[in-house]
Amino acid sequence: AIFASEAKITAKTANLTDQSLKKSNISLTVESDADILGVQFDIKYDPSELSLSESGIISKVPGINIYSSVKDDGIARVLMFSMSGNKILDMNNARIADLMEINFEPVEKFHGTSTVELVDVILAGEAGKEVNSFSSTFDVSFVTPKKTSLSENYPNPFNPSTTIKYELSQAGMVSVIVYDLKGAEVTTLVNKHQEADYYSILWNGLNSNGQ
User: Fold this and answer.
1) I need a surface site. Which of 116, 152, 186, 206 has the fewest CB within 10 A?
2) DSSP assignment, residue 209?
3) Whose CA is closest to 51, among 102, 112, 121?
């Protein structure tokens, strides 16, 4: 967790005993005795083992945007705030709020546990007042799936794109095809041999003709 004089950010990984959960997803939650209007930190990770996935970093707070950029190899800057001044955490509603989901992918089929660190964390309160905090480390784990399954796409509904995740317990030919409500094929997203692993596809909502 990240502790501060007025707030705490907790990083939680999925339960490794539940193979239906993705080990690459990290959820951040903030707990505070004061309103939080902005969050900024750097993510440090081993680029030989991990990369930020295409779905990247997803805000869990309605009306709050997330901006991220890679500063250097293995370091990404994350900024979370609302242009209209909406609160990330409003003490009038709750003391705890889900912040964001950070998605990683293994590099070159990396399997095992890799350490990720959150550094230079800044929490902004009312009138831009900074809430001091400390860095935190947590683990991201990639293991071979015990079962083959397809997860619900996220977000749903979506505009303009959505992410489809699936996992393979054994290597083999894989086809991922989108159909409309009448059963007609819309587009083929995957049609190739793949190894046992976790996978993620970003679909832009277009059919095979680009419509």
Assistant:
1) 152
2) T
3) 102
